[in-house]
Amino acid sequence: MKKFINDPADVVREALAGLAAAHPELRVDVEAGFVARAGAPRPGKVALVSGGGSGHEPLHAGFVGPGMLDAACPGEVFTSPVPDQILAATLAVHAGAGVVHIVKNYTGDVMNFEMAAELADEERIQVETVLVDDDVAVEDSTWTAGRRGTGATLLVEKIAGALAEEGGSLRAVAEIGRTVNERSASFAVALTAGTTPAAGKPGFDLADDEMEVGVGIHGEPGRSRQHMRPAREVAALVVDAVLGAKPVAAGEPLIVLVNGLGGTPLMELYLMFGEISRRLDDAGARIARSLVGNYVTSLDMAGLSLTVCRADDELLRLWDAPVRTPALRWGA
Amino acid sequence: MKKFINDPADVVREALAGLAAAHPELRVDVEAGFVARAGAPRPGKVALVSGGGSGHEPLHAGFVGPGMLDAACPGEVFTSPVPDQILAATLAVHAGAGVVHIVKNYTGDVMNFEMAAELADEERIQVETVLVDDDVAVEDSTWTAGRRGTGATLLVEKIAGALAEEGGSLRAVAEIGRTVNERSASFAVALTAGTTPAAGKPGFDLADDEMEVGVGIHGEPGRSRQHMRPAREVAALVVDAVLGAKPVAAGEPLIVLVNGLGGTPLMELYLMFGEISRRLDDAGARIARSLVGNYVTSLDMAGLSLTVCRADDELLRLWDAPVRTPALRWGA
């Protein structure tokens, strides 16, 4: 294995230390294992906390800042954060108005966030949980009962974060997060597997002419293994999978994320965005907003995911609202 | 080869079409082969044009927009843009105040930008050229006489772009671009080679325990091939190479870019930023600003480069100035 690491056991802590050095505007607590927005807790504001296994960067710590998350708790690579860690983050940012936990639907994450919410309740902190399960590829999977949470997490964090920033109530912020999740569908294709520092070799094997269709962000198996195909056929495949699971109405404004899984060059992601947008056009769908890049990754996996969210004026307004985080930044 | 492409011959055009679909705020001329800022030419403003072979995305097209480039011309993969293309971009954005060409020091780029500048001169457009040659690894290389232009290109484009945005003269904008280049040094390490769509296989071979030290952004050979080492030793190696070539004074404010070459996860880049910042601290250097991410890439190459720029108050002010491009965005 060749990686820019020291001891594989220290990767997450050392990456957090580097994040702290690069982003003095964040409060990084390496010992407690969380990254918080500077100035938190912010009086009167509903606080947003997310987290999950490391290896999906910039998710989640790269989305901490004004207009998005108040805190993120990175677990070990592909491993849920522990309840104490989630509780510490929750305590660090709650400001009396309640805390929203944004949780990707993996068994360990769900369990540990639930325990943290119970511990927070003992401290009289009100917690609402938004479960993200947007991946329409498979119903159950290696680490999941029900659908997996993937690319829509970014949209939930951005849109709920915007509503919290402008003073939305605990109930309203949680509600809009759930709405974004319900209105979103994702589907991914992998060309290679990612390599965790601990394993030191790719998580699964794919032949030189194969792709994993419907792959999960930890390399979980998808729907099928297929022969590699030209970009326009791959685009058709992912668009049809997404629209097949969650049809969109003609003219409905969509937020579209074409997301790299870590090892795919931006040139290919843009090429695929072109193919995907054409296919969506052909289906009568209307792209109102889009984002192309590596946002919800699986280490160095070559591959991509498509996320489509059926938006409306309010969701678009919140999507457009200013955000200032290491990985997502626009507006004032 | 597994890539998200159709015909390898169409990759650059199709990626440009996708860029156009994703960024309606840019003017993408797929036929003429350039990407321009919306609203260009902007009366009275010095225009900045850059370009080079494709495969280094987001460089350069991802840096087109307010506060940075007015236009970018992507050549074929690892191939210089042709003079007509550069001329078309120059004509599209010049506004009477002159045009600055920012050119990475590769033989083909230098020659083609020179021809374009002569053609522009015939149209009575004044062109100043800023040559970027920051890579201190080797003196001459596969496609270069003299030092190669790499990571500092981002800094030159950002800082000169900020000065042009606030009304700097042609001479002043070119001058500050040259100053940034002179004050910058870069050094890269590769763990794997990138794969061009045309070749379909990695550009060079590296053993499972080897790294290429001083590699170029087209996979050009560096100083030596060495055994893979822990992150902190790699950090020492790149910091020492950079400071050895261009010493910094104690307390001098530095702009530091830790740049991924395409296939290296953000987690490792942050870990390396931590190690690099510690090593710089030990050398008495002071990081005033930093940037971590995949900005000047080599397709899917696993590796990273370090760029250090000896700044001053004026360079920091221009670095901090607002920028709004697909890949770099901050401030108003």
- Our measurement of the CA-to-CA distance between the termini of chain A, rounded to an integer number of angstroms, reads 43 Å
Q: Which H/E pattern describes the elements of chain A? A: HEEEEHEHEHHEEEHEHEEHEE
Q: How many distinct helices of chain A? A: 8
Instruction: State the shape of chain A.
Output: globular
- Poorly predicted regions of chain A are none
From the alpha carbons, calculate the radius of gyration of chain A and give it in angstroms: 19 Å
Short structural description:
By secondary structure, chain A is an alpha/beta fold.
Question: Could you describe the 3D structure shown?
Answer:
Two copies of one chain form a homodimer. The model of chain A has no long low-confidence stretch (mean pLDDT 97). Chain A is α/β, with parallel strands linked by helices and 332 residues long. In chain A, 32% of the residues lie in helices and 23% in strands. Chain A folds into two domains: 8-182, Rossmann fold, CATH 3.40.50; 185-330, Hypothetical Protein Tm841, Chain: A,domain 3 (2-Layer Sandwich). A six-stranded mixed β-sheet of chain A has the order 1-2-4-3-5-6, with helices on both faces. A six-stranded mixed β-sheet of chain A has the order 9-8-7-12-10-11. Chain A contains eight helices and 14 strands. At the A-B interface, α1, α6, α7, β11 and β14 of A face α1, α6, α7, β11 and β14 of B.
